[in-house]
Amino acid sequence: MHDPVLIRASGLTRIYEDRNAVPVHALDGVDLDVASGEFLAVAGPSGSGKTTLLNLLSGLDRPTRGTVEIDGQDITRLSRAELAEFRLRNVGFVFQAYNLIPVLTAGENAEFTLLMQGVPAAERARRVLEELAELGIEPSLVDRRPSELSGGQQQRVAVARALVARPKLVLADEPTANLDSTTGARLLDKMREMNERTGVTFLFSTHDPMVMERARRLVTLRDGKVVEDVRRS
Ligand code: ADP
Ligand code: MG
């Protein structure tokens, strides 16, 4: 059986202008289909268009040309308010620099999306503790602020924050770039375990070979174009 298409990018193009109004083709006509349940890495050197692609797939940015369909819905046609609602319900985002809210505890950070979704307090508390435990964050760490956690722990909290809302899709932009390679590899193993257990689709960018080797599909970008697309078992 074929898994249904979750993401369909067609002719996706993003042209920025540099300071001298010279056009920069950050993404240049990318066609990409991602099935539900994939664990996919977008690789490529710095400047190849990875962040631009993830921002377009999440609706954080709009393409110059082309379309992005998520679950059959063309998100490039949504208004800002519709996009915000769409992201809240469907997409978890994990940033390179974790982007946890410094004044909130680990638990409160992980709870944030559920609060926005209007999930009742008792259910929020239960799901947050469950999700943090899944990611190896012990109860003793739940009340700590981000500054009292290691980088690896902070990124686990960020992944928990993305997953706890049960999105269809988690996008992660170089999630291990600020971690040492052992910690990064462990985080990837955790993400893959979650992918296999819950079927949530992961699409992450990287230029770390340790991360690439853990992907089940590796799409390589160069100068804003897909130059290679390899599947592995
Ligand atoms: P990567 O994430 O692979 O390092 P990016 O998507 O950040 O690549 O960038 C792709 C290209 O677009 C690079 O040449 C970069 O300099 C350029 N770029 C990215 N963002 C902007 C911007 N806001 N304005 C102008 N150029 C940009
Ligand atoms: Mg980038």
Describe this structure in words.
- Helix 3 packs across helix 4 (121-134) and helix 5 (151-163) runs parallel beside helix 6.
- The chain is of the alpha/beta class and 233 residues long.
- The chain has helices at residues 50-57, 80-90, 106-117, 121-134, 151-163, 181-198, 209-212; strands at residues 5-17, 23-35, 39-43, 65-70, 73-74, 91-94, 169-173, 201-206, 217-222, 225-231.
- A six-stranded mixed β-sheet has the order 6-7-8-3-9-10, with helices on both faces. Strands 2-1-4-5 form a four-stranded antiparallel β-sheet.
- The structure holds adenosine-5'-diphosphate and magnesium ion.
- Magnesium ion binds next to helix 1.
